[in-house]
Design goal:
Structural class: alpha/beta
Number of helices: 6
Strand order of the largest sheet: 3-2-1-4-5
Order of helices and strands: EHEHEEHEEEHHH
Radius of gyration: 22 Å
Distance between the termini: 43 Å
Oligomer: single chain
Largest sheet: 5 strands, parallel
Helix content: 40-55%
Length: 215
């Protein structure tokens, strides 16, 4: 049975806390800053990059330890203090407030884990090993990143904007064939030759040809 159930959490207009401002916190923040959440960081002796992010308005940094009153409308907390006593204190606070917490590099005290992620926005692939073999997860991530071109994300966004037009095709094999040909043949070729506009034009041409094809 799975100990950790994989889900994709909507971070739109949600708040996440990172307790800690050192290298461990920076590693988590690089990932969290890709989300749409509002990020709050609490800690001492911050890394320069955290101060830079705060200055740019990418996160809100408070140079002190996290307090219970700071946990308002928070969906997740990361304990990245690099100090077991402080992480235990933060865990007790989060538990009392009913907020899920991840203690970085501490599987047993974490209530959720963050998988290795292949980011081809809006295509996202999450890889987990139940915390047992992070090196294996990172290796699989590397292999997938080498296989999947960065253009897949661009094509996915273009395809999403065209989905209503494709509803003219019957559900089933014909529609699946249309999208397969776009994502793995016509789309990449058009994107390479003429950029996003050409890729969008290829959808119209492909739809016309598909409609004219009897099978």
């Amino acid at each position: 049975y799975m100990r950790h159930f994989p889900i994709f959490l909507d971070t739109t207009n949600r708040n996440i806390i990172v307790s800690g401002a050192g290298e461990c916190a920076v590693a988590k923040l690089r990932l969290l800053l890709k989300t749409q959440a509002k990020i709050f960081v609490f800690g001492h002796d911050p890394e320069d990059i955290i101060l830079q992010w705060a200055k740019k308005g990418l996160l809100i940094f408070t140079e002190r330890s996290l307090k219970k009153n700071d946990i308002k409308n928070i969906i997740l907390i990361y304990g990245a203090n690099e100090n077991s006593i402080e992480d235990a204190r933060i865990k007790a606070i989060s538990n009392s407030m009913g907020v899920l917490i991840n203690i970085v590099d501490n599987l047993n005290d974490s209530e959720f884990i963050t998988p290795a992620i292949v980011d081809r926005d809006p295509l996202t692939i999450a890889i987990g090993t139940e915390g047992t073999a992070p090196v294996l997860a990172r290796n699989i991530k590397k292999q997938l990143e080498e296989i999947l071109p960065t253009s897949l994300g661009i094509l996915a966004r273009i395809g999403q904007s065209f989905r209503n037009h494709v509803e003219i095709l019957p559900m089933g094999q014909k529609r699946r064939n249309f999208w397969t040909k776009f994502y793995f043949h016509d789309g990449p070729q058009a994107l390479q030759n003429g950029g996003e506009n050409e890729a969008r034009n290829s959808l119209n041409s492909l739809l016309k040809n598909t409609l004219e094809t009897k099978t």
